[in-house]
User: Which sequence fits this backbone?
């Protein structure tokens, strides 16, 4: 990495005293916090201008330090872009008489949503050209697309700030006209009642962004006349509204980390009263599907840690009426299920690997789909039809591009509808190797690490290796294919995905052992995986890199406080690093719903535990690795000031001369840039950071 004369900005220190449980913390950078009103105001007050000035200085510093690699970044972006089929289209799926397609046109940033009536040879009807809709915006996201039962109307959601506060609007697909109805501050989700004029949707609290209220809207009326049908008053819960696949019921769900509740309404009677399926209980979770005269429930009832499938009559829904369909298994996590007229499809996870199980309702067939790679990712995908013997699923691995496959559940034949094209002429699956190894954590647990690398890469202490993980909320990162990752693999990097506790890779207990008062297992698992990779000569501390985002950014902050000597560089994307301050402040978006993930620091036991690992609070005067931190000014999930404060404190205390960079996208939020090419440019910048530290900016691609 080239040295530069650029001077790093030094943030002003304005001490703020924060006291809780008799413990006093001094936060020198508390002043960086701005309200939404301050951020969005056209007239900037003094504090707002100071914060923006500081972020601008950090961006300028980042740009000066990385300017020497600007040409390489652009070339890397073009290389990544060159692997993508720009005029690509999704596999059409049929729903209610129409084939629906999402496609891209060459050179365009955003998708085009279209459909064809009756057959794929029919004339294309463009419903939404997002490129035209996004033309006047720096950020634009269209989602929540929902078609009425008569196929004439579409409700859709837009976000132009990246705050995940969506506007709902309605379009007449026959005339192309937009209705005047505009509904503000929603989650983006909505459902149609069966009368084709009534919409149910979810509103957010404007300050905390908690999804808290369900409303009923009638087409052509003012949003001010909408009727509130449910208010979730428990601040640790959120709510949503959906519709059963059978189109029979509108379902309102309430959810927290460890408890759920559902209520249902006949979709033919939108002004009726909702009925509670089973009142909420702490530690009781269930999700609902409808089939015939029964509701089917994916639930942890009866201490079913890995979940099981139960059913109950629509007329008797309380839990004492629930009966087992698929019993609980200690070694298998039941992740999801899909109901068809003649088949039940189960998505399971066993020993870390996805499985798809197909079972006939009449019990004449019960089998698993065969997959033969050592590590892979598979999932059921886009199956709106109920009366069909075809199930669609996606399959990919670290070395196999994504495929969309139609599988005939009756005769067990399959048809590959589409395989992801990797353009550019250099990719051949056989040029890459993947495998899974198991590291032993300090408490004896075995932690899986999925690896992929080019066949010509020599594995030794000089090999650069990027270790990635997330490790929170039970989310399991799939071992999936990436065209952008090839730019690292082709330059000699190994990519390692660590399946640490906090995910559900090895079942629900694997998640439980990585949350609340067990959260540090997430961090020590990652560190122990790093040590395993070094000790087994896959790499060395001089060539080991780490990356994580959001809660995975918290992971990055924790590991560099605990074992900074293990890593040459890390990227922390939109990192959740000021954990104790955020979890104490229930005015910050999404805080109250997080108590069952991290713990409530209003309880001293949790306060002390969170503080003991919170990256911002644990920064010390010592040497840190090279660090790149990225954030979005409008981030609603992790407020921009967390990474900004963290960088300021690191810069003040660290004793090394390694790089410390902060890059803030002033137009985006938690998900980064909205356009597909703009997102690629951000990835190119990130990869350039690692490649520059390895002095590989001039390395040619490995030729197949």
Assistant:
């Amino acid at each position: 990495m080239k040295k530069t004369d650029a001077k790093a900005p030094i943030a002003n220190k304005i001490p703020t005293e924060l006291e809780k449980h008799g413990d006093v913390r001094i936060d020198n950078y508390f002043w960086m916090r701005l309200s939404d009103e301050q951020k969005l105001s056209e007239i900037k007050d003094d504090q707002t201008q100071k914060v923006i000035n500081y972020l601008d200085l950090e961006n300028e510093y980042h740009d000066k330090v990385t300017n020497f690699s600007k040409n390489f970044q652009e070339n890397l972006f073009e290389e990544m872009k060159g692997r993508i089929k720009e005029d690509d289209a999704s596999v059409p799926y049929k729903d209610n008489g129409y084939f629906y397609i999402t496609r891209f046109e060459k050179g365009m940033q955003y998708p085009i949503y279209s459909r064809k009536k009756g057959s794929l040879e029919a004339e294309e009807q463009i419903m939404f050209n997002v490129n035209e809709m996004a033309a006047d915006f720096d950020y634009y996201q269209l989602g929540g697309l929902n078609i009425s039962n008569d196929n004439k109307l579409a409700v859709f959601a837009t976000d132009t700030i990246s705050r995940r506060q969506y506007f709902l609007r309605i379009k007449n697909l026959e005339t192309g006209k937009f209705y005047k109805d505009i509904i503000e501050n929603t989650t983006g989700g909505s459902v149609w009642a069966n009368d084709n004029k009534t919409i149910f949707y979810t509103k957010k609290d404007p300050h905390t962004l908690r999804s808290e209220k369900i409303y009923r809207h009638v087409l052509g009326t003012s949003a001010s006349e909408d009727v509130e049908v449910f208010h979730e008053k428990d601040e640790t819960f959120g709510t949503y509204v959906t519709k059963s696949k059978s189109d029979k019921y509108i379902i309102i769900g309430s959810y927290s980390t460890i408890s759920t509740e559902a209520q249902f309404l006949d979709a033919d009677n939108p002004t009726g009263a909702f009925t509670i399926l089973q009142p909420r209980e702490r530690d009781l979770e269930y999700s609902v599907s409808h089939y015939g005269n029964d509701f089917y429930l994916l639930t942890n009832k009866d201490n079913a840690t890995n979940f099981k499938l139960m059913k109950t009559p629509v007329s008797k829904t309380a839990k004492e009426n629930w009966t087992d369909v698929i019993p609980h298994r200690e070694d298998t996590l039941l992740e999801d299920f899909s109901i068809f007229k003649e088949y039940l499809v189960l998505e399971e996870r066993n020993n870390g690997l996805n499985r798809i199980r197909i079972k006939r309702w009449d019990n004449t067939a019960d089998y698993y789909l065969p997959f033969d790679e050592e590590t892979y990712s598979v999932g059921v995908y886009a199956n709106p039809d109920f009366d069909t013997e075809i199930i669609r699923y996606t399959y990919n691995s670290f070395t196999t591009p994504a495929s969309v496959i139609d599988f005939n559940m009756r005769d067990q034949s399959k048809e590959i509808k589409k395989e992801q094209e990797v353009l550019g002429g250099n990719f051949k699956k056989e040029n890459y190797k993947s495998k899974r190894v198991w590291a032993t954590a300090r408490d004896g647990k075995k932690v899986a690490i999925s690896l992929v690398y080019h066949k010509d890469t020599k594995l030794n202490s000089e090999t650069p290796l990027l270790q990635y993980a997330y490790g929170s909320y039970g989310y399991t990162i799939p071992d999936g294919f990436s065209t952008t990752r090839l730019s690292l693999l082709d330059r000699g990097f190994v990519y390692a995905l660590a399946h640490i506790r906090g995910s559900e890779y090895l079942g629900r207990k694997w998640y439980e052992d990585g949350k609340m008062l067990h959260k540090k297992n997430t961090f020590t698992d990652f560190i122990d995986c790093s040590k395993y990779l070094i000790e087994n000569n896959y790499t060395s501390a001089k060539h080991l890199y780490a990356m994580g985002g959001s809660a995975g950014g918290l992971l990055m902050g924790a590991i560099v406080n605990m074992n900074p000597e293990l890593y040459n560089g890390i990227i922390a994307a939109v990192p959740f690093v000021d954990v104790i301050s955020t979890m104490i402040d229930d005015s910050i978006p999404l805080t109250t719903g997080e108590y069952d993930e991290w713990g409530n620091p209003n309880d001293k036991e949790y306060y002390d535990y969170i503080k003991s690992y919170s990256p911002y609070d644990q920064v010390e005067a010592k040497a840190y690795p090279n660090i790149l931190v990225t954030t979005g000014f409008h981030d609603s999930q992790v407020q921009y000031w967390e990474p900004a404060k963290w960088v300021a404190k690191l810069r003040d205390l660290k004793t090394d001369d390694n790089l410390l960079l902060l890059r803030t996208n002033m137009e985006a939020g938690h998900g980064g840039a909205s356009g597909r090419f703009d997102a690629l440019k951000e990835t190119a910048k990130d990869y350039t950071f690692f490649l520059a530290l390895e002095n590989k900016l001039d390395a040619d691609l490995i030729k197949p």
